[in-house]
């Protein structure tokens, strides 16, 4: 059920960690369901500016990873890249 490239990266990571692919998947799912759900917070209604970027701005209020500014490539492309 995974795209081939994503599965390849996951199997590779599991091997490096010395665990089975199934265990890797179980841990990843457990980590996701243990985290609180992301709450989408829309900014207060305001006058439209005519700029589609600012007029459709949405904020995500989940705190995010604390090391995002340093590891953004890992989060976007995966640590294997």
Description:
There is one protein chain. This protein has a two-stranded antiparallel sheet with strand order 1-2. It is 52% helix and 5% strand. It has one domain. It has helices at residues 4-17, 21-34, 52-55, 68-77; strands spanning 40-41, 59-60. The radius of gyration is 18 Å and the shape is elongated. It starts with a helix and ends with a helix. It has 81 residues and is mainly alpha-helical. The protein has 4 helices and 2 strands; from the N terminus they run ααβαβα.
Write a brief structural summary.
With 81 residues, this protein is mainly alpha-helical.
Strand fraction equals under 5%
* Large-scale geometry: elongated
Number of domains: 1
How many β-strand runs? 2
Widest sheet, order of strands: 1-2
Distance between the termini: 22 Å
Question: Main sheet, how many strands, which sense, barrel?
Answer: 2 strands, antiparallel
The helix-and-strand class reads mainly alpha
- Based on the structure, what is the oligomeric state of the protein chains? single chain
User: Helix amount, in percent?
Assistant: 40-55%
């Amino acid at each position: 059920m995974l795209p081939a490239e994503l599965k390849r990266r996951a199997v590779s990571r599991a091997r490096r960690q010395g665990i089975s692919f199934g265990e890797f998947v179980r841990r990843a799912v457990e980590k996701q369901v243990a985290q609180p759900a992301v709450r989408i917070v829309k900014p207060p209604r305001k006058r439209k500016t005519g700029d589609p970027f600012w007029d459709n701005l949405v904020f995500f209020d989940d705190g995010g990873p604390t090391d995002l500014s340093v590891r953004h490539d890992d989060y976007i492309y995966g640590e294997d890249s």
